[in-house]
Amino acid sequence: DGLIEAMGEGSLHIDMSTIAPATAIDVSIALAAVGARALDAPVSGGEAGAINAALSIMVGGAAEDVERAMPLFEKMGKTIVHVGDSGAGQVVKACNQVMVAINYAAMSEALVLGAKSGVDPAKILQVLGGGLANSRVMELKGQNVITRKFAPGFRVDLHRKDLNIAMNAAKTTGVPLPVTALVQQFFEALSVAGRGGLDHSSLVTIYEDLAHFQVGESEA
Description:
Blueprint: H1 3-6, E1 12-15, H2 21-32, E2 37-40, E3 43-44, H3 46-51, E4 55-60, H4 63-76, E5 77-84, H5 88-116, H6 121-128, H7 136-147, H8 156-173, H9 178-192, H10 204-211
Helix pairs in contact: 5-8, 5-9, 5-10, 8-9
């Protein structure tokens, strides 16, 4: 919508949204044609990371452009990594969203299994948090699952969009993602069920639907 034409020699465009890697590359090429530069710099860390200036920022583009943008990145994030050329930031963000989605699925399965078997889900979190099963997903969102706090920090529909990006990138690259494909369908089911505006931790509700049991409640 005119942005590229308005930018000229010496301009630096930093895209911190999550888009397809191929799109990031196309933007970089288009900007280079008018003498401008581009970085794709998606983030991870959620609402809390943004509020606390503690985001992880994965940056694709030329090293000199990353160095130029570093003072801005340092105001927003704690982990800032130049991961490669244009599009690489978006590739790493796709990898991040795959890992987060699968972690949510694993936590959901464990909590539903344990709680329906009669174990206090809070104690499940306590034990799993002290061993190899621990994860940032469980640390930050496990208690929210038990207390049914699904106000969005990161909405289901946004994660659903990101998983579609990951699956398309995998298809282009020739990388099968069978587990991601299954979890993607759970996110599709959440959206179809009218829960697309909830936090992505609400993935547990799909497992609860299948088990006819709600975590945190006694079995009827």
